[in-house]
Amino acid sequence: MKKTHYKGTKDEVRALNAYVKLMRASESVSARIHGHLVDAGLTVSQFGVMEALYHLGPLSQGELAKKILKSSGNITMVIDNLEKRGLVKRERKAEDRRFYAVQLTVEGRRLIGSIFPRHAAKIVEEMNALTRTEQEELSRLCRKVGLKEEK
Fold this sequence. Notes:
mainly alpha; Arc Repressor Mutant, subunit A; globular
């Protein structure tokens, strides 16, 4: 078991060890799950945008940025690239012309519809390393850490 080489307090060492394990596990699982996206010519961010639109319907760029945890500048580039490929389109919202609704095109819906089932199956396969109870506990712990407010 890899441990930090930092020589701090017991609390610091424990926290750093937990953090390193969390990050390594996340990167490792992510690489195995997202490997198939290369075949579709998609980045993880592009897939995230398409998956959000597929399941939630049209969203503003700001809503998409929040959903996939990207900056507004980054999300613009991601959407630009998807739009160039004909996978999404932007339409001005009738009720507020300052905002665009981003939505999947027919081609985008076809693509995400064809790759999402395999993606979901890969996630299930990865998570099956844990029991159902362990998966629920992992979800609870990740939510607790993820929603921790800054002091």
